[in-house]
Design brief:
Helix content is 33%, strand content 26%. The chain is an alpha+beta fold. The chain has one domain (13-138). Strands 1, 2, 3, 4 and 5 form a five-stranded antiparallel sheet that branches. The longest helix is centred in the middle third of the chain and has 14 residues, at 60-73. The protein is globular and about 55 Å long. The protein starts with 12 loop residues before the first strand and ends with a strand.
């Protein structure tokens, strides 16, 4: 019988480090509404059009779906990464990631991280400071 010595994985997950904000992406979340208020008027108009059904009625569930898709695609916030874990989502700047074989090497000074956090804070029009999050997501 052969015995494998070394790392073996059949999982489809990766780890991440991101500087930014945790976002509640659940139905009815006020965070989605808060993000929507900071959109450029033309983007908001486009999302509302996409969320209006054939009879001309505004559908809140469709609006949330369109917001989610726009955030995921990077269409709403240029230069902002979106990471979704099983139970939570993050908006910010991904500092590094890892596949099964290990974390990629990155080097950032504290000042560089602070600048990135301030840039993300400005893009998302947040008043609270960005945080650094680590986790694992399904890929």
């Amino acid at each position: 019988m052969k015995q494998r010595k070394g790392f073996v994985s059949n999982s489809s997950s990766s780890s991440f480090v991101i500087i930014g904000y945790e976002v509640d992406m659940k139905r009815g979340s006020t965070e989605l509404e808060d993000l929507a208020q900071h959109l450029a008027p033309e983007k908001m108009t486009k999302l509302k059009e996409l969320a209006t059904n054939k009879s001309g009625e505004f559908d809140v569930d469709s609006f949330e779906d369109e917001m989610y898709e726009a955030i995921c695609s990077g269409e709403l916030f240029k230069g902002v990464d979106f990471i979704r874990d099983d139970s939570v989502a993050y908006l910010g700047k991904e500092i590094c990631q890892a596949e099964d074989w290990g974390l990629e090497y990155t080097e950032n000074t504290i000042r560089e991280l602070m600048i990135q956090g301030e840039e993300i804070q400005g893009v998302l029009k947040r008043t609270d400071s960005a945080s650094i999050f680590t986790g694992t997501r399904a890929t």
